[in-house]
């Protein structure tokens, strides 16, 4: 499976957005909550997980990772980067946001 990845530079902060390939340009609602996975924020280039893993392991800069989707969430859990308790859900779609400052 591939994932859409986009890198945003906000001041000196790198924000990396990732979503499952099948979720781009979709919107999910649960009660008053809306999860919008749109092109400007999540759209980027399709990458495999090994490429994403290399990017987040780079030690040269602190990064915020904002990811959406069951497949990307599973990969981050398998790599022990997050735990299942770190996931939030809207309409059964998992998402998470984490700060990586030093990756061992």
In short:
The protein is of the alpha+beta class. It has three helices and eight strands.
Task: Write up what this structure looks like.
This protein is an alpha+beta fold and 104 residues long. The protein has one domain (2-100): uncharacterized conserved protein from methanopyrus kandleri domain like (uncharacterized conserved protein from methanopyrus kandleri fold like, 2-Layer Sandwich), CATH 3.30.1860.10. Helices cover 21% and strands 46% of the residues. The chain contains 3 helices and 8 strands, in the order ββββαβαβαββ. The chain has helices at residues 39-42, 49-57, 70-78, and strands at 2-10, 13-20, 26-30, 33-37, 45-48, 63-68, 88-90, 93-100. The strands form 2 sheets. Strands 5-1-2-6-8-7 form a 6-stranded mixed beta sheet. A two-stranded antiparallel ribbon has the order 3-4. β7 (88-90) and β8 (93-100) form a beta hairpin. The two termini are 25 Å apart. The model has no long low-confidence stretch (mean pLDDT 94).
